[in-house]
Amino acid sequence: MFTQLRLTLRRLSQSPGFTIVAVLTLALGIGVNATMLGVVEALLFRGAPFPTRERLVRLVGQLRQGAIDQYSAVELDEIRAQSSAFESYVYLNRESVALAEPDRPAERIVGVNVSDGVFTTLGLTPFLGRAFTPEEFQPGRNQVVLLSHAFWQSRYGGDRAVLGRTLRLDGENVEIVGVMPPRFDYRKLWGGAAFWRPVNFTKDQRDWRDYRAFWFIGRLRTGTTPARAAAELATVAAAQQQQFPESYTGLRYRAIPLDEALTDPQSRQISWLLLALSGFVLLIACANLANLQLARATARLREFAIRAALGCSRRRLLAQQLLESVVLALIGGLVGLLVAIGLGRLIANRYSLGGEPLDLSFDGPVLLATILVALLAGILFGLAPAWFAARADVNSALKQQSRGSSAGRGHHRLRQALIVTEVGLALVLLAGAGIIHRGFSRLTERAPGWDVDRIIVGDLPVPERRIDTDDKRAVLFRQLQLRLATLPGVEQVAITSSLPIDSYNGDRQVLVEGQTAGDASLMPAAFHVMATAELFPALGIRLLEGRIYNPGLERGKQPGVVVINESLARRLWPQQSAVGRRLGSMDSGKAYWAEVVGVVRDVDSAIATRAPSTPYVVYKPLENEPWSYVRIVLRSPAPAGLAEAMRRAVAEVDPDLALASTATVREIAHWQQRELRLAAEILAWFAVLGLVLASVGLYGVIAHVVEQRRGEFGIRLALGAQPADVFRLVLGYGVRWACVGLVLGVAGSFVLGRLLGSWLPRLAHVDPLVLASVSGVLLVVALLACAIPARRATRADPLEVLRAE
Question: Which pLDDT value is given to residue 285?
Fold first, then answer.
């Protein structure tokens, strides 16, 4: 075995040009595959760093109209009563708080409120200090925090004397009692949290059934399956449906393994897709190498025949040729790992988890998988040439000159298959990239019905413990509006609970007079937006009928007033005016009635790749229902320059407040689409690489055909054929099989387009213009790749050919 390996390495060193081209081609193909293997491992297979994590599950409720992935305190109490399948459990929610310290401006940090089962459920204890005591989960006793290891290092330099110090969070003093271990800083779960504190439900959270803000994570008892845990909660679901049919129609609970629950389904789908498409790049590279190996095998037919005549078995010839391919693949795999490390750094810096670069590692499972990919690639591109070499006919090969060795019918079929494969796979890659990029162009060009270019948005979490009543929040919002309106260049100031940039949020079912709350199937769900009246002129949302509400005139009026969008008006009162009608909104099982005073134009998200869960929107005065997390909207001709002024103005109104973020709508769109845009860029690079490899491979196949048929072309020219005839003959051969590849590639592109369309319905779908464009590009490239060797065929010297024959 070692003797054969040594001979193989010597043979490769005697053909440095071939070896370098083969290794570089394989390095590119295997490198992109190794990169995507690293991405898939990091996103989908790297589990949570908690002991026996396979027993950790997240509880999700499935409804007919959607899913419940967060729960209210009322719902958590009902679930806990039937939680015998869980050994322990924790409920948690993230919060953004203002950290104020002497001589420093207030800044936003993320924290997590956790219940008393956090340490037993996750199986970890503090690295420094102590855990929370049972007393600290009692109302008004939770003024303590545990810091994350990363925050402790960055803020306090790892000072162990930090215990006992006081932090001021949202205007409230809290004591640092411990630091969690580094492995607890799991960004998929905590989102880069700086601290944890005991949960204390506010009055709204305790009393409001629809105040869904908490995750439920449980540790299953030994031997209990997720399905069994979900089945035990069927009684809870049945009771909730019976008591509140309009809120829990079709409810069933699912216990999803934590690792699966923490992975975004879209990221999972896109990651697998990119891994599969990176395999297309490798297949094109393998087709190139198969052609090179076939050319080498054809040139060495006399050598193989002589060795066979001297007693070398076909099996041994096959093994020797296959060993050469495998050695090339392994060397290419090693170089490919270097390519993967470089590509991985580029991707990791563009794709973040919780604000940190994605941690891509190319050791362990990824390294093993890369080696297996290299071995499979070597077998894939080496098997057919080795098989042809081992089956060489001794008598005919010895009678022929080595240069003039002719290929049999099997060689011709293999060459045709190589052309079809390379062109078809390259077209699928080009079409996929074209479909995604065309989709982003449509998304950018689409008119959403509101002004996306003159808006800057500031997210403001309001501390519920300190500003704890609706009246206090309403006063704060009015003060903020008055102060922000004085900023230079500001045309409008509005405050709202959500914006159409992310398809709004906060849907509730609505009903009209004559319906009862039990008619759940007849009640459409509508987004409920709490907004000041200035939202409509600020966003440029056009009034179609009636008027905008005026809280100053209508304060305390019963019933309240609302504005609805035109789609909801048509749904509830077709062919009639909606103004003056009464609309009921379901909340915690009760209907709250209001008068419709206006109808506004429908608006669409500027960036969403999926249709919203409902097209209906109800706008309510924020003053009547002031939420504790709002978005401040400023309209200005130059919105990007207002970020710092917004922060200062908020601090002037309340020094303990700080905006969580400020960004223009275009910046928000870019941020929210960053992962998809990165995937589109990766796919575009795959397409470019596939196009280059396919063009080189097609050139190589046709050049090989010309070399093998050089004698035939010389004879044709000697018998009176014109060079143009030979040129058309060679060109037609290559283009004919390239067109077969195009046809198969178009079919594959339709499949890929349908798949992308099912995942990203508003972004990707099969576009005939895209298919025609990329097919045209690939056809032009194929013509050029065939034209060069075809031109060489016309230069065959008839006298030299006849002399050789």
Answer: 94
Query: Are residues 543 and 550 in contact, defined by beta-carbon separation less than 8 angstroms?
Result: no
Confidence of residue 521 (pLDDT cuts 50, 70, 90): low
Cβ-proximal residues to 744 (8 Å cutoff; 6+ apart), any chain = 420, 424
What is the secondary structure of 504-528 as a DSSP string? Answer: ---EEEEEETT--TT-GGG--EEEE
Gap between the Cα atoms of 347 and 507, Å rounded: 36
Distances (CA, A) of 684 to 32, 183, 304, 673, 687: 13, 36, 43, 16, 5
Retrieve residue 612's tokens: 């919203």
CB atoms within 10 A of CB 227: 10
- The token pair at 356 is 């940190």
Residue 674: pLDDT band with limits 50, 70, 90: confident
β partners of residue 495: 632
Indicate if the pLDDT at residue 230 is higher than 80: yes
Residues 498 and 377 reside in one and the same domain: no
Residue at 117 is within a domain: yes
Distances (CA, A) of 394 to 301, 311, 314: 9, 11, 11
Same domain, 125 and 170: yes
Under DSSP, is residue 75 helix (H, G, I), strand (E, B) or coil?
Answer: helix
Same domain, 385 and 423: no
What type of residue sits at position 152? W
Listed residues 629, 656, 683: the one ending a domain: 656
pLDDT, mean of residues 268-296? 90
**pLDDT above 70 for 586:** yes
pTM score: 0.84
What total number of domains does the chain contain? Answer: 4
pLDDT per position as a tens digit, 34-58: 999 999 988 888 888 999 999 999 9
- Segment 627-648, tens digit of pLDDT: 888 999 999 999 999 999 999 9
- What single-letter amino acid sits at 111? G
Helices 265-299 and 314-350: angle between axes, nearest 10 degrees: 140
Q: For residues 745 and 747, what is the distance between their CA atoms, to the nearest angstrom?
A: 5
Report yes or no on 5 lying in a domain: no
DSSP state of 502: G
Question: Residue 535: CB partners within 8 Å, gap ≥ 6?
Answer: 494, 495, 496, 529, 541, 619, 633
Contact 630, 480 (CB under 8 A): no
- At 355 the pLDDT is 56
Distances (CA, A) of 71 to 58, 91, 220, 238, 642: 12, 9, 19, 17, 37
Residue 714: the pLDDT is 80
Q: Which of 257, 234, 247, 228 is nearest to 78 (CA)?
A: 234
**pLDDT band of 588, cuts 50, 70, 90:** low
Mean pLDDT score, 317-344: 89
Average pLDDT over residues 619-634: 92
In a domain, 624, yes or no: yes
Angle between helices 265-299 and 723-759 (to 10 degrees): 160
Identify the residue with better confidence: 705 or 574.
574
The kind and range of the H/E element at 276 are: helix 265-299
Residues 484, 644: contact at Cβ < 8 Å?
A: no
Q: Write the DSSP assignment of 549-594 as a string of letters.
A: --HHHHTT-SSEEEEEEHHHHHHHSTTS--TT-EEEEEETTEEEEE
Domain around 593: 463-656
> What is the pLDDT averaged over residues 147-159?
94
- Which secondary-structure segment (H or E) carries 167? strand 166-169
Please state the separation of Cα 462 from the chain's center in Å: 31
Q: What is the pLDDT of residue 395?
A: 59
Interatomic CA distance for residues 450 and 603, integer angstroms: 6
Q: What percent of the chain has pLDDT over 70?
A: 91
- CA distance readout (Å), 391 to 297, 300, 381: 11, 13, 17
The residue type at 236? V
Residue 597 near residue 544 (C-beta atoms within 8 A) = no
